[in-house]
């Protein structure tokens, strides 16, 4: 039987020198009359929003800015921004920010209706159609949200984060401009960079992996394993930052063609209940879950394939066992070097919460089914116990 694969992508991605200028061409091409610009207050204060705003302003089109969005918003906070957007009658969205801003803008692009809102999409994500074209400009490297059909929102009453998947949320245009991540604080660069690594390695070891996702996942993994420390440590390492931006994009493509697995599944309650940043919760779980997964021969084999592609050290290891162990050790070394917390103690999570964590994590069946090694409640308990 032939392997099944499919991959939907944005119409165009612009990167490198002066890529921001492409916004003007897009406005012209789509004959847009009014642009809604999504960002957040922090980015505006830092002056990062000035770059896309200047291009939109210079194009002469009418525009207004929506910046009232907290990081990692709940579905109610996103709905408030969507409601504000709906009043505008804008016919193009330009969103500049991290995953939080981009996800909110993506939801707005399919929710110009009074019939249903973000809450309804939690149960029936497929019903919404694209209403307004969208340009995404990431400022972290990162979530890959600029290219995925997913938007993730907090659901406080379930103490979880939930991913809404609808292919109408795939961006029309993406702009990758490394100047936006030049001064990304090390802590945020580290967490978002490890999130991108998790996307690549999970998608490569997923039940949904296929030749298309493998290509992007491996390239992304190679770029991240060999650039992340320098990109985070040195504000002037523009080549390395540029590579991280591409790797995050590849990670998003890998998610679109494949799917993340138990790292992301078990991470959702940590974001939903304790508001631990998405990248940090994934970084904590990455090695424990990969060690668990590597007990499965198919995962071990895939980790060894990733080693062959990504390890450029002169001193080589040779067995599948050693190669898989090298990959996991390398992931742990990155998390350690970047000083990302590895214990829930740092977030004052009491040990008594273990059972509720297990219960919530096991609800994320959308991603757990992608895990090559079956995860039982006992397995989830053992994994969470390692980071308590
Ligand atoms: N849609 C997807 O496919 C997908 C994938 C993974 C994660 N996510 C979601 O994305 C969200 C996380 O996004 P994120 O990790 O990009 O962070 P974020 O958007 O939540 O931003 C975190 C903080 O970093 C700041 N920031 C962003 N860019 C900056 C820059 N260049 N310089 C200085 N500060 C900057 C923001 O203002 C914010 O305070 C979560 O809700 C997560 O669940 C979505
Ligand atoms: Zn992620």
Low-pLDDT parts are none
CATH top level assignment of the largest domain: Mainly Alpha
Largest sheet: 6 strands, parallel
CATH architecture of the largest domain: Up-down Bundle
Bound molecules: nicotinamide-adenine-dinucleotide, zinc ion
Q: H/E series, N to C?
A: EHEHHEHEHHEEEEHHHHHHHHHHH
Number of domains: 2
How far apart the termini lie comes to 44 Å
Structural class: alpha/beta
Mean pLDDT: 96
Give me the side-by-side strand order of the main sheet.
Answer: 1-8-5-4-2-3
| Beta strand % | 5-15%
Number of strands: 8
Number of helices: 17
- Assign the CATH superfamily of the largest domain: Dehydroquinate synthase-like - alpha domain
CATH topology of the largest domain: Dehydroquinate synthase-like, alpha domain
Care to describe what's here?
The chain is an alpha/beta fold and 388 residues long. The protein has two domains: 12-181, Rossmann fold; 186-387, Dehydroquinate synthase-like, alpha domain. It has 17 helices and eight strands. It has helices at 22-30, 41-45, 50-58, 75-88, 99-109, 118-123, 186-204, 211-225, 228-233, 238-257, 262-274, 278-293, 297-310, 320-337, 354-361, 365-368, 377-387; strands at residues 12-15, 34-38, 62-66, 92-97, 134-138, 150-155, 160-165, 173-176. It has a six-stranded parallel β-sheet, sandwiched between helices. A two-stranded antiparallel ribbon has the order 6-7. Strand 6 and strand 7 (160-165) form a beta hairpin. Helix 15 (354-361) packs across helix 17 (377-387). The model has no long low-confidence stretch (mean pLDDT 96). The structure holds nicotinamide-adenine-dinucleotide and zinc ion. The site of nicotinamide-adenine-dinucleotide has 35 residues, from helix 2, helix 5, strand 6, helix 7 and helix 12.
